[in-house]
Amino acid sequence: MDKTRQPNNIGFLRLVFASGVILTHAHEQWGQAPAGRDLLQTMTGNGLTVAALCVDAFFLISGYLIVQSMHHSRDIGSYFVKRVLRIFPGFLVAFLLSALLVPLLYGLAPDLGQIWRIAILQRPEPFAIGATIVEPNSPMWTISYEFRCYVLVALLAAFGQLERRTMLLKATAIVFALFCFCNIPAVYWRVEQFRFLPLVDMTLGAPYPALRFLSAFGFGGCAYLYRAELQAVSSRFCIIAGIIALAALFYRPIAQPAAMLGGGLLLYWAAFRANFGPLQRINDRFDISYGTYLYGYPLGIVWSFAALPFPIYVGATLLSAWAMGALSWMLIERPAQRWKSRLDGKAPALPA
Question: Are the C-beta atoms of residues 8 and 273 closer than 8 Å to each other?
C-alpha cells in the first residue's frame, strides 16, 4: 500500500498555517504591538513574516494534493469543476461580507462596483479613511495565485505532460532558480514592484509572487509524483533539513528559498509520516482552515474597535475566525463538497 495516500496531519497543519497568518496580521491591525512586527520579524529583523512562511506552506501542501486530485479525477472537466466548487463558493461569500460590511464599520457606504472582482478571485479593493488605507480582506490576494496553479495542472494534464515527472521537476527547478535570483537585494526591489500590463497582470499575476507560489506549488506537485522516493528519505535527514532552513531565516535573500527546500522536506515528513497522535484528528474531516483564512483579517478589523489588550484581541480574533471557518464549512463548503463527490466514482484519498 502506498502510505502517502493515507490521511495524516494535513488538516491539522493547514489550520495551524491559517492561524499563523491571522497572528501576523493581528500585530498590524491592533496597531500597538511592538513596532507592528510579528515574532519572526522581531527575531530576524529582515521583514520576513510568519504569514509569508505559512502561505508558502499552504502552496507546498496544495501542490501535492492538487496533482493527486487530478490523478484521481475521471477527466479534466471533472477535475476543474471540483476545483471551482472547492474555492469559489467560500471565496464568494467571504468577499461579499468583507466588501459590504467592513466599510460600514467606518461609516462608509459599500462600493458595489467592485463585485466583478469575485470572478477573477481578487481581494476587495482598499478604501481610504483620511490618510489611512484600509484593506477589507488583505490575505485574499493569494487565492487567485492558487487558482492559477489549478489551471496550470489542468493544462499539463490536457497535453499529457503531468506524468513526465523528470521534466516537471526540472521546470520547477528553473522557476525556483529565477525566484532565488529575484531575492538578491539589488534585484528584489525592482522585481517586487514591477507589474505587467493590466490584462497580463490579471492573467498571470505579478512576477515576484507568481515565481514564489509557482515554485512552492511545483515542489508540492513533484513531491506527489516522487512520493515513493520521498517516503524513503530518513526522518533524521528531514529534521536536519528543517533546522538548516530555520537557521537560514536570519539571512533574508535565502530565507524563503531555504524554507521551501529544507522546510518543505520537513513539512512533508510532518504531514505524512510524523505521529501527531490525537492532533491528527483536528481539522481532519471537518475542515475549517479555508474559512479561517478567509475570515481572520476582517474579524481582526472588527475586534480592533473593541480596544482590547493585545493577548485578548488575538484570542478573540482566532476564536471567532475558527467559528466562522466552521460555519463556512457547514453551510457553504461541505455542501459544495457533496457535489464534488458526485463527479467521481470514489472520493480522493486525501482531502483536496
Answer: yes
